[in-house]
Automatic annotation (TrEMBL), chain A:
Signal peptide (UniProt feature, chain positions): 1-23
Annotated protein name in UniProt: Branched-chain amino acid ABC transporter substrate-binding protein
Keywords: Signal
Membrane-crossing residue ranges in chain numbering: none
InterPro entries referenced in this protein's UniProt entry, alphabetically: ABC_transptr_sub-bd_PQQ (IPR022478), Peripla_BP_I (IPR028082)
From TrEMBL, chain B:
Keywords: Signal
Pfam families found in the cross-reference section: YNCE
Highest taxon of source: Bacteria
Domain YNCE-like beta-propeller: start-end pairs: 16-314
Region forming the signal peptide: 1-19
Protein name per UniProt: YNCE-like beta-propeller domain-containing protein
InterPro entries associated with the record: Host-pathogen_enzymatic-act, N2O_reductase_N, PQQ_b_propeller, WD40/YVTN_repeat-like_dom_sf, YNCE-like_beta-prop, YVTN_b-propeller_repeat
Species, as recorded: Meridianimarinicoccus roseus
Record carries keyword tRNA-binding: no
Length: 390, 319
């Protein structure tokens, strides 16, 4: 990897010396494939319209300040394609004007864009799709991932449960595809750390639980028997809120609601996080969500690579970002870097409740031969990704 | 005990009846804990504005300045009575500051505003505001008063400010999240710690060129958790004691060879520190464990921990 980086930087130096010295312009694109919102029980918290985009803009502002001292000028061009629109056409156009592109899209769209002829030699950042397969068999050399994979999040949660010795686990999962994917990831994580999720039920109610939760949920959870913790897989925020405090037994709830593993949370305040939260709130008028953080981290990764190398070419930036030299201050207490085997941003995962941090994973005691952060998500020996090999 | 006696005698010599003290700001209690260097006990707790962090005494020790970050002010306190005399206009969210050798100009890092504010403490007015990088934090003024340094945590730079023109004349890229700056050795060198980068960079002041970079390695602690923050120099600037944050250690660095000679185990998430008057004892603030570790400087050993308020952050000596 280092060799690769050196080769690329030599190239870039040769290019830089051939050109007249001028302020470097770094054009970054943000492409969103809007998704239709499925119906959910609670109407209280719709997703903000600028979810993700506001994070990229915050990252741009942070990066621009550094750039002004170094003669680097960053721009961000945001394109949002409505549901059913021509995403690939928009991607082609975006790649025509910027070779650094953030993708806020589902996994299949990310892959389709990454495989476009126009995307070869560009550097794409997946800021929204958590699917482990993008970091595994379907990895692409031109795609880095700043959003945590589902596997990283569930590994974090299981570490915390183990540390608390809440090892007698039951589960309730929703019927959506994302729910079963989250449930699969929970099972995988439990197995990885020597646990087993016991009794489980599928949430298949269609009643409006705002009226009936207090009577329905106790009955629904009665036959789960006794346990330490109830995991809920409800990745669309449909029914999960109505499980809390309504279970037959007085037991904690974790997973998609209650105690949740997140890429980022508005509840974070340690490690300088409060500064980032306040900057974000000042400019966007709302709290920073995980999707915003992933986009922010992509912008900051580009900025850090440009700042340290002085180059703007995607291949030089990619080589530096994947090298041992790269480190990003992500306001999570440790330097962030990228996994050389699949392009995933290596990061601590906060396990939170809505108002405070419960624990930051990796939890103390979960050791790794190279980097404790790699106890979260897919580690080098277990991935089937060849695009990143040297 | 002998050290304590010496400190007591020194303290008496300086200020009559009262022994030397270490003043510690408790970030999450909105108080200052005052530690008596003679007895190594907290003798009083003084209320402050919200989220007190940086703390320094005027050069004549007649007043103490406190960055009350969430009150958006620098408070000026009478150390005899603990009474707030007045607030200084500080800009938003002041975190750390440095007092110019003229005892009159405070250089304040405004963390939320990407600005360094220069305040005249006599007229209580803002003399100048200088745009710096995102999240300015560390502040230092050279002993000759000609250069001020602001480190910005997200921009990862040390900004060199000419105190005559109040303009930046150089920017040095350093490791991630630069936290603290000092001008040792008569101001010929400038040191900057980088918390996330895990290093301390040493610059030649005359040329602003980096001449050394110090790394740390604490046995049994992953590199990522070794996070240099505050540091201070021993008598004659021969050694630097560097707080290493969540690694819960303080490193002893040889300031001539730039090599790390020792690591001392202290409390959890060690932030900043202050020496006793004769520099025989060092007091470190440990944010997470809510205490102060007392280090015997000659023996390089922790000899006591003193419970203070929640999240102790800054420390300053009152001789």
């Amino acid at each position: 990897m280092l060799k690769h980086y050196l080769a690329a930087s030599t190239l870039a130096i040769a290019m830089a010396t051939a050109l007249p010295a001028a302020a470097t312009e770094i054009a970054i694109g943000y492409l969103r494939a809007e998704q239709p919102a499925p119906p959910v029980l609670s109407n209280l918290r719709p997703d903000p319209a600028d979810l993700g985009i506001a994070g990229a803009q915050a990252g741009l502002a942070d990066t621009r300040t550094t750039g002004q001292f170094l003669g680097h000028d960053y721009t961000l061009d945001v394109v949002s394609v409505p549901p059913g629109g021509d995403v690939l056409g928009a991607a082609r156009a975006a790649l025509g004007s910027s070779r650094l592109l953030l993708l806020d899209a589902p996994a299949d769209t990310v892959l389709a864009i990454a495989d476009l002829p126009e995307a070869q030699g560009a550097l794409l950042f997946n800021v929204a799709a958590p699917d482990p397969v993008l970091r595994d068999a379907e990895c692409r050399a031109n795609v880095l991932h700043t959003v945590a994979s589902t596997a990283m999040r569930t590994d974090a949660l299981i570490q915390v449960l183990l540390a608390k010795r809440w090892t007698d686990i039951v589960a309730v999962a929703g019927a959506h595809e994302a729910d079963s994917a989250f449930m699969d990831a929970l099972d995988r994580s439990a197995g990885k750390f020597g646990l087993k999720i016991g009794k489980r039920k599928i949430w298949a109610f269609d009643a409006d639980m705002r009226r009936a939760a207090s009577t329905e949920v106790p009955l629904f959870t009665q036959d789960l028997g006794d346990y330490d913790v109830l995991l809920v897989a409800d990745e669309l925020d449909d029914f999960g809120e109505y499980i809390l405090y309504n279970t037959w037994r007085p037991r904690p709830v974790a997973g998609s609601v209650g105690m949740t593993p997140q890429t980022w949370s508005p509840a974070l305040e340690q490690w300088g996080a409060v500064q980032l939260q306040e900057r974000f709130r000042d400019t966007s008028g709302r709290d920073m969500q995980p999707e915003d953080y992933a986009a922010w981290a992509a912008l900051r990764s580009i900025g850090e690579a440009v700042t340290r190398t002085g180059f703007a070419a995607p291949d030089a930036l990619r080589a530096y970002i994947l090298s041992d030299e790269f480190e990003l201050d992500g306001f999570k207490g440790r330097p962030l870097s990228y996994r050389g085997w699949n392009g995933q941003l290596r990061q601590p995962i906060p396990v939170v409740h809505p108002r405070a941090l419960v624990a930051l994973a990796p939890v103390e005691g979960f050791l790794h031969q190279v980097n404790e952060l790699d106890t979260l998500g897919l580690d080098a020996p277990e991935v089937d990704c060849t695009a990143f090999g040297d | 005990m002998k050290t304590a006696m010496t400190a007591l005698v020194l303290g008496l010599a300086f200020s009559g009846a009262q022994a030397a003290e270490i003043w510690v700001t408790n970030e999450k209690d909105d108080t200052i804990s005052v530690i008596d260097i003679d007895t190594l006990e907290v003798t009083r707790t003084i209320p402050t504005g919200e989220r007190p962090r940086g703390i320094i005494f005027s050069h004549d020790y007649s007043v103490v300045y406190i960055c009350a970050s969430d009150s958006d002010s620098v408070q000026v306190m009478d150390p005899e009575t603990g009474r707030i005399l007045h607030d200084l206009p500080s800009g938003e969210d002041p975190e750390q500051f440095a007092l110019h050798p003229d005892n009159r100009h405070l250089y304040i890092a405004n963390e939320d505003d990407a600005i360094t504010t220069v305040v005249d403490v006599e007229t209580r007015t803002v003399v100048s505001q200088i745009s710096v990088g995102i999240e300015p934090e560390g502040m230092a003024v050279s002993p000759d008063g000609r250069i001020a340094i602001t480190t910005s945590e997200t921009t990862n730079m040390a900004h060199w400010i000419d105190t005559d023109t109040q303009k930046i004349f150089a920017n040095s890229l350093v490791g991630s999240r630069p936290r603290h700056a000092e001008f040792p050795k008569g101001g010929t060198e400038m040191w900057v710690s980088s918390e996330i980068g895990g290093t301390v960079a040493v610059f030649d002041t005359a040329t602003q060129k980096q001449k050394a970079k110090i790394s740390f390695e604490v046995q049994g602690v992953h590199d990522d958790r070794v996070q240099p923050v505050g540091f201070e120099f021993t008598e004659g600037d021969t050694h630097a004691f560097v707080a290493l944050g969540p690694s819960n250690h303080v490193a002893v660095v040889n300031a001539e060879t730039y090599e790390v000679e020792d690591y001392i185990l202290v409390g959890r998430r060690v932030w900043h520190m202050a020496f006793s008057p004769d520099k025989s004892l060092l007091f470190t603030t440990n944010g997470v464990s809510g205490d102060v570790t007392v280090i015997d400087v000659a023996a390089r050993e922790a000899i006591k921990s003193i419970k203070v308020g929640r999240f102790p952050w800054g420390a300053a000596l009152r001789p």
